[in-house]
Amino acid sequence: MFTMRLTQVTVAIVSLASLALPADAKAACNWSPTLTMTPAADSESHGFDFTWVVVPTAGDCASFTIDHYRVVLKEGSYPTGPNSGRVFAYGTSAAGTALPHRAEREFYARLFACDNADCSDVFGNVAGEGIDTDAADDAREIDTTDPESWAIVGLNANDGGIASTVVPTTANDPTSFFYPPGTTHAGTLALYVYRSASGYQHVVYARNGSSGWDDFNRSTWSVYMDEAFGSHTSDLDYDDVSHPYARPVDNGVDVVVRALAQNQGTSGYWHVDWTDSVHDIGDDFDLTCSSCCAGASSTECDFPTAEAASPPTAGVAVCADSSASCYELKDALHGRWMWDYIADPVPDMTSDSPSILFSGSPDGVTCSAVGGGQADIYQATWDPVGETWEVLMDGSCPDAIITDAHDPGIIPLPNGDFKAYVVDASHELVIHYYNGVTESWETGTSVVEIYFEGDSTVVDHDCIANVDAFVHVDGGPLEGMFFYLAPSDGAFEVGYCDQGSDYSGSAYSNIYFAELQN
Fold first, then answer.
1. How far apart are CA 491 and CA 271, in angstroms?
2. What's the rounded Cα separation, in Å, for the pair 442 and 400?
3. Taken in order 295, 296, 302, 303, is the CA torsion positive or negative?
4. Do residues 339 and 247 make contact, with C-beta atoms less than 8 angstroms apart?
5. How far apart are CA 376 and CA 437, in angstroms?
6. Contact at 8 Å (CB) between 517 and 1?
7. Of 39, 175, 284, 396, which is the most exposed, with the fewest CB atoms less than 10 Å away?
8. pLDDT band at 21 (very low <50, low <70, confident <90, very high)
9. 321: which residues sit within 8 A by CB, 6+ positions away?
10. What is the pLDDT of residue 349?
11. With 0-12 CB in 10 A as exposed, 13-18 as middle and 19+ as buried, what is 43?
């Protein structure tokens, strides 16, 4: 078993009006690059390995000075110049790896030998510099990345429901993060899930027993499934809290854990609530009801509602009541934070603008349903001045980022990109990509394979829900995911799972952990 390492490649993109022609024209100098392109070793779903023959440095080529080689990748057609695509620079070596982080994508590659730092002069620009070509061109190649493959580490299919799971009791919708530098438990993983007890939902908290990467299916937890916050049945504004998504933030006073969660509320519409923890650990959200904090058997637990505090301690993050003031949303449900915590582990809510992706539905009247009946995925961006989440709109209606899908899971990528794992209408786990340069969602998608490492049993996608994908930066980066797994009869076979059913009585309805293999 090997673990994918998410290598960040420095990409230099320079605006190029024209290729400058150097004054030092050369005599006949021929270069045979013989570029080769193969899926990247240990990262076959993410990019490519390249080798090439360097420009000769003797004879007629002696006067050509190599500053660096670069490979440019583009989808659909070959790059036309040294900056007309995704650029990967390699110094003066004869090999390199390019990681565009797009699974199941066909890329066209072109190699350039640059005479200067910004590559405004490339080999072949002037008379006497010739690149040997065959039918396809000796400095060009085409290849396709592999599908993503994830392993439920160290487990066989028949191990499901035994203690070799993250949460071997009925739980759903995991959300996790590694505590950022400077916090009390820096480098340690925190995990939240929601569970049902005494007829209501509540969110529980766990913290790993050691810092760094681990086999989270068989971890030792220093804190395990302690109550964090939950429903308060006598307060209809907080009567059915579930599906948390949490992130360390700077709230303007301290670094705390801000948790968002879906809740039905007084109107009968699902909306997204939020609450901040008391300190940077995130195990205490200042619960205010009379009989809470007693663990899984507690009667009810409330969001704190001291809105007069500075900063306030709870409220509605994204409302939904089919009105214009709530973006004509009928429902706003579970989601994930969309923030580049690789570059900046803690968003400052007084100045930064993180986003969230969340499942939701339009009102069906002013804004007609977009998909075929289930939820769609919407995006909201934090306005630090107005201190509100602003839903992205298409005219007067919420803009469905991804239609007929739910359960978004988010991983940040280099250069401001993101990938989102969503469950679509056919229950397939599909990846969508956000391009940080164009600031838009791409049309190309890919499908994920998840299997039990112990016997290579592939899990039917109908068994999987509520994916929580994440990156561990220190010592990596490494990619992992928690998810809910619920086969209907204990057999991981095609046709035996249905996310819409309640498997609370099944020993297999647990949270599992998988690592990206390629």
1. 35
2. 14
3. positive
4. yes
5. 24
6. yes
7. 396
8. very low
9. 267, 269, 271, 329
10. 96
11. buried
165 vs 392: CA distance, rounded Å: 38
Structure tokens at 105: 């994508």
Q: DSSP label at 324?
A: G
Helix H or strand E encompassing 421: strand 418-424
pLDDT, position 150:
97
- Looking up tokens 């923890």 gives 277
Tokens 């009989």, residue? 291
Which tokens hold the place of 244? 């948390």
At 451-468, the pLDDT tens digits run 988 888 888 887 788 999
Handedness of CA 435, 467, 406, 269 (dihedral sign): negative
Whole-number pLDDT of residue 351: 97
Nearest alpha-carbon partner for 474 in 174, 178, 151: 178
Contact call for residues 424 and 448 (beta carbons, < 8 A)? no
Between the two ends of the chain, the Cα-to-Cα distance in Å is 10
The verdict on whether omega for the bond into residue 311 sits within 30 degrees of 0, i.e. cis, is: yes
Q: Nearest CA to 177 among 169, 187, 189, 164?
A: 189
Query: Which residue type sits at 241?
Result: V
| 3 state DSSP class of 80 | coil
- Helix, coil or strand: residue 16: coil
